Protein backbone atom coordinates (compact mmCIF):
# COMPACT_ATOMS: atom_id res chain seq x y z
CA UNK A 1 0.00 0.00 0.00
CA UNK A 2 1.51 3.32 -1.05
CA UNK A 3 2.25 5.88 1.65
CA UNK A 4 -0.18 8.48 0.30
CA UNK A 5 -3.10 6.15 0.95
CA UNK A 6 -2.31 6.37 4.65
CA UNK A 7 -3.17 10.06 4.59
CA UNK A 8 -5.36 10.77 1.55
CA UNK A 9 -8.80 9.13 1.28
CA UNK A 10 -10.12 7.11 -1.61
CA UNK A 11 -13.62 6.53 -2.89
CA UNK A 12 -14.07 3.97 -0.13
CA UNK A 13 -14.85 6.83 2.27
CA UNK A 14 -18.33 6.91 0.78
CA UNK A 15 -18.90 3.41 2.16
CA UNK A 16 -18.73 4.92 5.65
CA UNK A 17 -21.11 7.69 4.62
CA UNK A 18 -23.55 5.08 3.35
CA UNK A 19 -23.17 3.07 6.56
CA UNK A 20 -23.87 6.10 8.75
CA UNK A 21 -26.83 7.09 6.59
CA UNK A 22 -28.42 3.66 6.98
CA UNK A 23 -28.09 3.94 10.76
CA UNK A 24 -29.44 7.51 10.77
CA UNK A 25 -32.36 6.55 8.54
CA UNK A 26 -33.83 4.44 11.36
CA UNK A 27 -33.99 7.49 13.65
CA UNK A 28 -34.21 10.30 11.14
CA UNK A 29 -37.29 12.02 12.56
CA UNK A 30 -36.11 12.52 16.18
CA UNK A 31 -32.63 13.33 14.86
CA UNK A 32 -33.97 16.02 12.54
CA UNK A 33 -36.22 17.46 15.23
CA UNK A 34 -33.23 17.72 17.55
CA UNK A 35 -31.07 19.36 14.87
CA UNK A 36 -33.39 22.28 14.13
CA UNK A 37 -35.53 22.45 17.28
CA UNK A 38 -33.26 24.88 19.14
CA UNK A 39 -32.56 27.08 16.09
CA UNK A 40 -36.29 27.31 15.44
CA UNK A 41 -36.88 28.47 19.01
CA UNK A 42 -34.14 31.10 18.62
CA UNK A 43 -35.74 32.24 15.38
CA UNK A 44 -39.17 32.62 16.94
CA UNK A 45 -38.15 34.01 20.33
CA UNK A 46 -35.52 36.47 19.12
CA UNK A 47 -36.95 37.19 15.68
CA UNK A 48 -40.34 38.17 17.02
CA UNK A 49 -39.61 38.95 20.67
CA UNK A 50 -36.36 40.90 20.49
CA UNK A 51 -37.07 41.90 16.91
CA UNK A 52 -40.02 43.98 18.14
CA UNK A 53 -37.57 46.27 19.95
CA UNK A 54 -34.68 46.11 17.48
CA UNK A 55 -36.72 46.95 14.41
CA UNK A 56 -34.75 46.90 11.15
CA UNK A 57 -31.06 46.17 10.99
CA UNK A 58 -28.83 46.60 7.93
CA UNK A 59 -31.93 47.36 5.89
CA UNK A 60 -33.86 44.20 6.80
CA UNK A 61 -36.17 43.00 9.54
CA UNK A 62 -34.43 41.44 12.53
CA UNK A 63 -35.99 38.01 11.91
CA UNK A 64 -34.55 38.08 8.38
CA UNK A 65 -31.18 39.16 9.76
CA UNK A 66 -30.87 36.38 12.32
CA UNK A 67 -32.41 33.65 10.12
CA UNK A 68 -29.30 33.49 7.95
CA UNK A 69 -27.07 33.57 11.02
CA UNK A 70 -29.01 30.71 12.58
CA UNK A 71 -28.61 28.69 9.37
CA UNK A 72 -24.83 29.07 9.72
CA UNK A 73 -24.79 28.30 13.44
CA UNK A 74 -27.02 25.26 12.85
CA UNK A 75 -24.42 23.86 10.45
CA UNK A 76 -21.75 24.44 13.08
CA UNK A 77 -23.70 22.80 15.89
CA UNK A 78 -24.89 19.78 13.91
CA UNK A 79 -21.53 19.01 12.27
CA UNK A 80 -19.72 19.57 15.57
CA UNK A 81 -22.05 17.30 17.55
CA UNK A 82 -21.71 14.55 14.95
CA UNK A 83 -17.93 14.91 14.82
CA UNK A 84 -17.68 14.80 18.61
CA UNK A 85 -20.27 12.62 20.32
CA UNK A 86 -21.33 10.34 17.47
CA UNK A 87 -17.80 9.83 16.14
CA UNK A 88 -16.44 9.18 19.65
CA UNK A 89 -19.17 6.60 20.23
CA UNK A 90 -18.26 4.79 17.02
CA UNK A 91 -14.56 4.97 17.82
CA UNK A 92 -14.35 4.17 21.54
CA UNK A 93 -17.66 2.69 22.68
CA UNK A 94 -19.00 0.64 19.79
CA UNK A 95 -15.51 -0.08 18.36
CA UNK A 96 -16.89 0.49 14.87
CA UNK A 97 -13.61 1.93 13.63
CA UNK A 98 -11.73 -1.19 14.68
CA UNK A 99 -14.15 -3.32 12.67
CA UNK A 100 -13.90 -1.04 9.64
CA UNK A 101 -10.11 -1.04 9.74
CA UNK A 102 -10.13 -4.83 9.57
CA UNK A 103 -11.30 -4.30 5.96
CA UNK A 104 -9.21 -2.72 3.17
CA UNK A 105 -10.32 0.77 4.32
CA UNK A 106 -7.69 3.10 5.75
CA UNK A 107 -7.91 5.59 8.61
CA UNK A 108 -7.99 8.32 5.96
CA UNK A 109 -11.16 6.76 4.50
CA UNK A 110 -12.78 6.63 7.94
CA UNK A 111 -11.88 10.25 8.70
CA UNK A 112 -12.99 11.58 5.33
CA UNK A 113 -16.21 9.57 5.57
CA UNK A 114 -16.95 11.02 9.01
CA UNK A 115 -16.25 14.55 7.76
CA UNK A 116 -18.52 14.11 4.75
CA UNK A 117 -21.29 12.59 6.83
CA UNK A 118 -21.06 15.35 9.45
CA UNK A 119 -21.17 17.98 6.71
CA UNK A 120 -24.17 16.30 5.10
CA UNK A 121 -26.02 16.23 8.43
CA UNK A 122 -25.19 19.90 8.89
CA UNK A 123 -26.56 20.59 5.41
CA UNK A 124 -29.79 18.70 6.18
CA UNK A 125 -30.21 20.75 9.34
CA UNK A 126 -29.51 24.01 7.49
CA UNK A 127 -32.00 23.20 4.74
CA UNK A 128 -34.65 22.46 7.37
CA UNK A 129 -34.04 25.89 8.93
CA UNK A 130 -34.16 27.55 5.50
CA UNK A 131 -37.53 25.95 4.78
CA UNK A 132 -38.97 26.98 8.15
CA UNK A 133 -37.56 30.52 7.90
CA UNK A 134 -39.06 30.90 4.43
CA UNK A 135 -42.53 30.58 5.94
CA UNK A 136 -41.77 33.82 7.81
CA UNK A 137 -40.55 35.52 4.64
CA UNK A 138 -36.99 35.56 6.01
CA UNK A 139 -35.27 33.74 3.11
CA UNK A 140 -34.55 34.88 -0.45
CA UNK A 141 -34.76 31.64 -2.43
CA UNK A 142 -32.76 32.90 -5.41
CA UNK A 143 -29.61 32.83 -3.29
CA UNK A 144 -30.12 29.33 -1.87
CA UNK A 145 -28.29 27.51 -4.73
CA UNK A 146 -25.25 29.69 -4.03
CA UNK A 147 -25.54 29.10 -0.30
CA UNK A 148 -25.70 25.29 -0.39
CA UNK A 149 -22.04 24.69 -1.41
CA UNK A 150 -20.94 27.11 1.32
CA UNK A 151 -23.10 25.26 3.84
CA UNK A 152 -21.46 21.96 2.85
CA UNK A 153 -17.95 23.46 3.01
CA UNK A 154 -18.70 25.02 6.39
CA UNK A 155 -19.89 21.64 7.65
CA UNK A 156 -16.62 20.09 6.50
CA UNK A 157 -14.62 22.77 8.32
CA UNK A 158 -16.48 22.36 11.62
CA UNK A 159 -16.40 18.57 11.31
CA UNK A 160 -12.63 18.59 10.76
CA UNK A 161 -12.08 20.64 13.91
CA UNK A 162 -14.46 18.45 15.93
CA UNK A 163 -12.79 15.24 14.78
CA UNK A 164 -9.42 16.65 15.81
CA UNK A 165 -10.83 17.15 19.31
CA UNK A 166 -12.35 13.66 19.25
CA UNK A 167 -8.98 12.15 18.36
CA UNK A 168 -7.48 13.40 21.65
CA UNK A 169 -10.54 12.95 23.88
CA UNK A 170 -10.65 10.21 26.51
CA UNK A 171 -14.28 10.67 27.50
CA UNK A 172 -17.43 12.57 26.59
CA UNK A 173 -16.72 15.03 29.43
CA UNK A 174 -13.77 16.48 27.52
CA UNK A 175 -16.13 17.87 24.88
CA UNK A 176 -17.55 20.40 27.33
CA UNK A 177 -14.25 22.28 27.24
CA UNK A 178 -14.52 22.57 23.47
CA UNK A 179 -18.13 23.73 23.58
CA UNK A 180 -17.48 26.25 26.37
CA UNK A 181 -14.22 27.65 25.02
CA UNK A 182 -14.79 27.47 21.26
CA UNK A 183 -18.32 26.71 20.06
CA UNK A 184 -20.25 29.01 22.41
CA UNK A 185 -17.96 32.04 21.83
CA UNK A 186 -18.33 31.57 18.07
CA UNK A 187 -22.09 31.35 18.45
CA UNK A 188 -22.19 34.60 20.40
CA UNK A 189 -19.48 36.71 18.76
CA UNK A 190 -19.35 35.79 15.05
CA UNK A 191 -22.23 37.88 13.77
CA UNK A 192 -25.15 35.49 14.18
CA UNK A 193 -27.26 37.92 16.24
CA UNK A 194 -25.78 41.33 15.46
CA UNK A 195 -23.32 42.95 13.00
CA UNK A 196 -19.66 42.45 13.83
CA UNK A 197 -19.04 46.19 13.53
CA UNK A 198 -20.79 46.68 16.87
CA UNK A 199 -17.97 44.79 18.62
CA UNK A 200 -14.81 46.54 19.89
CA UNK A 201 -11.94 46.57 17.41
CA UNK A 202 -10.15 43.74 19.20
CA UNK A 203 -13.31 41.64 19.15
CA UNK A 204 -13.75 42.23 15.42
CA UNK A 205 -10.15 41.22 14.79
CA UNK A 206 -10.44 37.99 16.77
CA UNK A 207 -13.74 37.14 15.06
CA UNK A 208 -12.05 37.28 11.66
CA UNK A 209 -9.97 34.23 12.61
CA UNK A 210 -13.03 32.12 13.44
CA UNK A 211 -14.73 29.99 10.77
CA UNK A 212 -18.31 30.84 11.74
CA UNK A 213 -17.64 34.52 10.95
CA UNK A 214 -16.83 33.65 7.35
CA UNK A 215 -19.76 31.26 7.01
CA UNK A 216 -22.12 34.00 8.17
CA UNK A 217 -20.44 36.57 5.91
CA UNK A 218 -21.23 34.41 2.87
CA UNK A 219 -24.61 32.97 3.83
CA UNK A 220 -26.29 36.14 5.11
CA UNK A 221 -26.03 38.09 1.82
CA UNK A 222 -27.04 35.15 -0.36
CA UNK A 223 -29.99 34.19 1.84
CA UNK A 224 -31.23 37.80 2.02
CA UNK A 225 -31.02 38.66 -1.67
CA UNK A 226 -27.59 40.32 -1.81
CA UNK A 227 -24.13 39.47 -3.11
CA UNK A 228 -21.35 38.97 -0.54
CA UNK A 229 -18.00 40.73 -0.69
CA UNK A 230 -14.56 39.12 -0.31
CA UNK A 231 -15.93 35.76 -1.41
CA UNK A 232 -12.48 34.31 -2.16
CA UNK A 233 -11.21 35.26 1.32
CA UNK A 234 -14.16 33.68 3.13
CA UNK A 235 -13.95 30.51 1.06
CA UNK A 236 -10.19 30.32 1.62
CA UNK A 237 -10.59 30.53 5.40
CA UNK A 238 -13.25 27.79 5.45
CA UNK A 239 -11.17 25.60 3.12
CA UNK A 240 -8.08 26.27 5.25
CA UNK A 241 -9.85 25.08 8.40
CA UNK A 242 -10.98 21.98 6.51
CA UNK A 243 -7.50 21.08 5.27
CA UNK A 244 -5.65 21.90 8.49
CA UNK A 245 -8.29 20.17 10.60
CA UNK A 246 -8.15 17.06 8.42
CA UNK A 247 -4.35 16.99 8.56
CA UNK A 248 -4.23 17.25 12.35
CA UNK A 249 -7.06 14.76 12.76
CA UNK A 250 -5.46 12.12 10.53
CA UNK A 251 -2.16 12.36 12.40
CA UNK A 252 -3.82 12.18 15.81
CA UNK A 253 -6.32 9.50 14.83
CA UNK A 254 -3.65 7.25 13.35
CA UNK A 255 -1.73 7.54 16.60
CA UNK A 256 -4.89 6.93 18.62
CA UNK A 257 -5.77 3.81 16.67
CA UNK A 258 -2.13 2.70 16.47
CA UNK A 259 -2.22 2.27 12.72
TrEMBL record:
Any one Pfam family match given in the protein's UniProt record, by short name:
ABC2_membrane
User: GO molecular function: any one?
Assistant: ABC-type transporter activity
Question: What PROSITE patterns does its record include?
Answer: ABC_TM2 (PS51012)
Q: List localization entries.
A: Cell inner membrane
Sorted alphabetically, the Gene Ontology BP terms of this entry are:
oligosaccharide transport
UniProt keyword annotations, A-Z: Cell inner membrane, Cell membrane, Membrane, Nodulation, Transmembrane, Transmembrane helix, Transport
Q: How does it sit in the membrane?
A: Multi-pass membrane protein
Q: Domain ABC transmembrane type-2, which positions? A: 30-256
Give the record's GO CC terms. ATP-binding cassette (ABC) transporter complex
Q: Which sequence ranges are marked TM in the entry?
A: 27-50, 62-85, 124-142, 148-168, 175-194, 231-253
Tell me which PANTHER family the record gives.
NODULATION PROTEIN J (PTHR43229:SF2)
Role played = Part of the ABC transporter complex NodIJ involved in the export of the nodulation factors (Nod factors), the bacterial signal molecules that induce symbiosis and subsequent nodulation induction. Nod factors are LCO (lipo-chitin oligosaccharide), a modified beta-1,4-linked N-acetylglucosamine oligosaccharide. This subunit encodes the transporter.
Q: How does it assemble?
A: The complex is composed of two ATP-binding proteins (NodI) and two transmembrane proteins (NodJ).
Q: Which family does it belong to?
A: Belongs to the ABC-2 integral membrane protein family. Lipooligosaccharide exporter (TC 3.A.1.102) subfamily.
Tell me the NCBIfam families matching this sequence.
nodJ (TIGR01291)
| Name the record gives this protein | Transport permease protein
Amino acid sequence: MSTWRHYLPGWACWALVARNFRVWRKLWLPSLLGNFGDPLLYLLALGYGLGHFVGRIEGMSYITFIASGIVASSVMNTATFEGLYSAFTRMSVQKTYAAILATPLEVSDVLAGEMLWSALKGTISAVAIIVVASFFGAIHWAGVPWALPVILLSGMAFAAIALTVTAISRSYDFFMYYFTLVVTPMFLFCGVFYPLKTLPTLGQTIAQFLPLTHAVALLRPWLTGHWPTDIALHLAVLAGYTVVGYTLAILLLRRRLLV
